[in-house]
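Dataset card, provenance and construction

Sequences and ligand SMILES were collected as paired inputs. For each pair, a complete structure of the chain with the small molecule in place was predicted and serialized as structure tokens. The example below shows a pair involving copper (II) ion. Curators did not alter the output after generation; any descriptive sentences attached to a record were derived from the structure itself.
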Amino acid sequence: MLPQYFPLFPESASTLSPRVDALFFFIFGVTIFFTVLVALLICVFAVKYRKDKHPVPVQIHGSIPLEIFWTLVPLGIAMVIFAWGAVLFFQEKHPPKSSMDIYGVGKQWMWKFQHPGGQREINNLHVPVGRPVRMTLISQDVIHDFFVPAFRAQMDVIPGRYTYTWFEATKPGVYHLFCNQYCGTKHSGMVGEVTAMSPDDYEAWLRGAGAFGSLATHGQNVFASMGCPTCHTGADNARGPNLYNIYGRMERMSDNRLVHVDESYIRESILNPSAKIVYGFQNIMPTFQGQLNEDEMIELIEYIKSLTYNGQLLQLQTNTQQEPPVNLDKIQKGVDVMQPGTNTTPMPRTSAVPVTQEAQEPSTAEPAPRQVVVPGKQKAPAKPSTTARPKGEQHP
Amino acid sequence: MSTATQVPAALEMPRDTYLNAGYGVKSWFLTKDHKRIAILYLVSITMFFLFGGLMAVLIRLELLTPAPDLFQSDTYNKLFTMHGITMVFFFLVPSIPATLGNFVLPMMIGARDLAFPKVNLASWYIFMIGACFTFSAYISGGVDTGWTFYTPLSTSYLNTHVVAAALGIMIAGFASIFTGLNFIVTTHRMRAPGMTWFRLPLFVWSMYAVSLVQVLATPVLAITLILVALERGFHIGIFNPQLGGDPVLFQHMFWFYSHPAVYIMILPGFGVISEVIPCFSRKRIFGYSAVAFSSVAIGVFGFLVWAHHMFAAGISTYSALVFSLLSFIIAIPSAIKVFNWTATMYKGSIHFNTPMLYALAFIGLFTIGGLTGLFLACLGIDMHVTATYFVVAHFHYVMVGGMLVAYLAGLHFWWPKMTGRMYPEPPAQLSALITFIGFNITFFPQFVLGYMGMPRRYHTYPPEFQVLNVLSTAGASVLAVGLLLPMFYLLWSLKYGEIAGNNPYRATGLEWQTESPPPMHNFHETPIVTQEAYDYESMNEEEVVIG
Ligand SMILES: [Cu+2]
Ligand SMILES: [Cu+2]
């Protein structure tokens, strides 16, 4: 039969797939070996010692050496599989430093994805080939599960906390995205597609996807409108800590514990500020539980992640019309802020916006603060549609 | 063919048996006789099994095509939920302990009854009350939580009768606790003179291990389900993050019971197989203490691996490592058992009676079921296959290929003891074969589907999965024939079966020394044990003398 209609093996389209498959085949070999061994022994004994052939059984009590043998050999094999699986698990759990970030929000029964450049899509995820993508996932309601079999990538999507997974697509194509945790009526309808594109196509897609300002710029607005700048002024004597450069570093807490600042930590700092108190500060930050939806939270986090300017105070105060921190419009324009020379402090993680030579030109010139207030204008495509589906740039 | 034909032809039914000790409704529903209670359980769980099986048939029919054809998504979700709940809590958990165990355990140790006959009867009533709750939820619209009741879906997002179903399971759990308690005390206190721990049949060892697990783990399930009901009914934030709860906490609590429950379901099967294989190999079991201690080891380690169901649920990397390691370790005692059973056949004299055929099928299927567990225990692979059809196939190989097949082995094995009549051998052997073949056609394709990425609990699926799904459904129809056949010939045998005699297979074990069916108090006089279990040597010598 044509494999097209009767496939027996999933497509392998990420850097992890061959590694997962290799271990799979190893365990498969072990399984076959023992199954055949046991089946063969049973068949041989059943035929050789059937009652007509072998009427008088030989009584055997057992054998300690044999027991030890068939305890230790399987144990040894099991430990090999365990160790190999553990190594693979570490790889699956730890995205490369160079990963770009994409956010996914699950809700009954659809997937929403947000690229840091502000592109949003539903039940469809566009990713570049050859670049690791780290997914930061959260659910608005019940537990879902983000599962792309062709990438061998899977992670539960849980309400109230971020989970992460990553993949690096190796082949352009369209792949299944499944919700793999039962989530109610249309669980089996909570499916989508992951479109892996060559970097050029991906870049073109990003431009055509109709983003109205990057997540960070939206986040800046949220930040201001929630009154965060009243405390987080960036000044030394401010009531709240300076949020510049916090992302990715180890932060000392008042109990002297060191905490890694990642998305989950920032989220917790905002929703449950008293859980961990930053060293040298008072527990005065109010909780914003119930005041922010998941999209706004993601925007805030992207904003805080973008605060990487070194040495300049954050001057937001309560004024929304203020000039944005240095990186925002660069991100918006598609400049990779990790590019040497664009920033003195390297940001641990970049946005989804790819490096482009053309985009870099204007950005090295003066920033245009006004553009933040009217986002999405400077390089918006002809159609101001918010749907994330450009025409005619799909893949074979 | 069977040894039954070797015994003198003119056997008669014993005059006083537990079956004719009383006839009225009261004599059954108020009985304190463990044998009658076992029959009550047998009838009830057979009903539940038929119901759960019907759900399975409907599920397989729906999955014939990728599109929804027979049911709406909600209905489909209810079907797999009811299938899971019924099969797990109302069939598999009570199956061997409450029926076969209830019937033969006291006889195996030479006791007149269980330690607490009234508690035993109460357990059946509790079980049925639980069933009433759960089935009332089914009837009044169904439940669609999945048998796992994952929160916050079950507590805040469904408007079916979740609380009734959960309460029913919780109540039925107490039946299981009662049975476990009864078995523990009975095994400790009521053994016949000379029946030392290391003369106990391995079935008793495995029942003992199961009972410990039941008593220790089931309360956690009860607590968990109560918390679900509290959150659902009174919006007390326990699991739903919007109310300040933690959804993953539920999974920890649920699997803290439900992983050991996997062993509640499979350990009794091990016990049955350890009886059947020596008997039909005419040989003592190979490595008695290895098999006995591996049961206990499984019972203990079974408590320490629950989070292997949650590798993709965002638990920390290091705890995942520990749980993965322990899951590999717990695979070893099961492997030891398989090797010992196989070695028992070596240089035996093998009879292919139906229980033996089922036992051989068990070894094969359980081996596959167990080995595919390695994929799931392995962190790197589990992140791909968890919650796919690979898992479905794996646990059906263990639960159906293992436990159900072992149950059928035991049911046929002790059928003459329970009823006094033999089942008819040819159709029984045939149905064992059909079951084995049908089972593999049904569930093997699901391994392939799973690795390809087909998620479980999917009402509709992408078209490239169809061929394998059709195969699976085709296999299910064969399997259904294999599982329905016994109902017919076993019922037939109640009236027309050959009279069995006390010990039709010339098996060791005290239960075979009394009459079939046994008298009211099992033994006319208390047996005295002077030999080890599985002393087939002297049994075979006797046989030669008779023959
Ligand atoms: Cu789902
Ligand atoms: Cu488990």
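Derived descriptions for this record:
The pocket of copper (II) ion (ligand 1) is lined by residues A 144, 179, 181-183, 187, 190 (CB under 6 Å).
Chain B has one domain: 32-504+516-543.
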